[in-house]
User: What shape does this take?
Amino acid sequence: MDVFQKCQEYELAESLRRAGLYNYFRSIESAQDPVVTIDGRRVVMLGSNNYLGLANHPEVKQAAIRAIERYGTGCAGSRLLNGTLDLHVELEDRLASFMQREAALTFATGFQVNLGVLSCLLGRQDVVFLDSLDHACIIDGARLGFAKMVKFKHNDMADLERKLALTADDVGKLIVVDGVFSMEGDVCKLPDLVRLKRQYGARLMVDDAHGLGVLGKHGRGTAEHFGLDADVDLIMGTFSKSLAAAGGFIAGDRYIVDFIRHHARAQIFSAAPPPALAAAVLAALDIVIREPERRAQLWENTRYMQHELESLGFDTGGSETPVIPMVVGDDRTVFSMVSRLHEDGVFVNPVITPAVPPGRAMIRTSYMATHSRAHLDEALDALKRIGREAGVIH
Assistant: This one.
């Protein structure tokens, strides 16, 4: 048996290329704005997580440029040894203050946050409870730990309670959920999760990658949205959505974060985030705090698109956020529709199994504060036409 045999036998990507339906790794030639350039053509972007429109903001770009001029392009080592800059310390202090937590720790990528945090916290005497639709990095982080992993049905609190009740009292229990589920756009049932956490002596971690900057009066995410900031033990956030860069962080009590700082292999054995990245996030955080009107505009755009898509007959799958899917069902129909929309100047994302359950293939759209009504109406015209062509709406 050749270890590369599986690679030779993998045919899906090539078959989609031959059919002209390959919709991944599209090369964008411009910034992540409401309109992007692909192959020299203008395309309305409905596939970006740049929720507040800060990825091309002049202040954010200038902050990154100034950091490069002062510190260079990289840190040439890990945070543990030679890679910690005063910028990293400032960013972590600012994040802790913004999130109203005692401490925060940054990682080079959002994926590494969950990989590092969960693998170092979960021991052989622990049980971790995961929503069945949790992000892949949560699942991978739990797998790297030594805890028993228990999945419960998506947002099904009765199923979670049954599984908590069957777990011995003398083991450590950690519930880990997405705040906003990244494909479906729905929100975790945080009040019920907090109730079950208390009842069964568990701890609670929320991955708020898609909630940070979007939910809550000040943009602190899902916990603030529900008024339950003090009841969530750990909050994970990313910089690649609302905060205009790349990377991520964990925030919580100082003693927990300090343990993670000295035990998370994904942080200890990775190069420090580049100076430009840290500076860009600091600038973006300033704008999030200073300009709440961006969040208000994002929600106005979200409500408009939700109403219009549902009026056309699309199944938006119960989305409650700026992530709005259109459930199609069949994988190949999704690829065909995404290709047709691309031809008509609209960028959307195909989502198929295993990212969603079989038969729930969908087109994922997401919205920005900087989308104008004209951008949205242009996209709606194409979605209406191609949805009817495909027989998804009538």
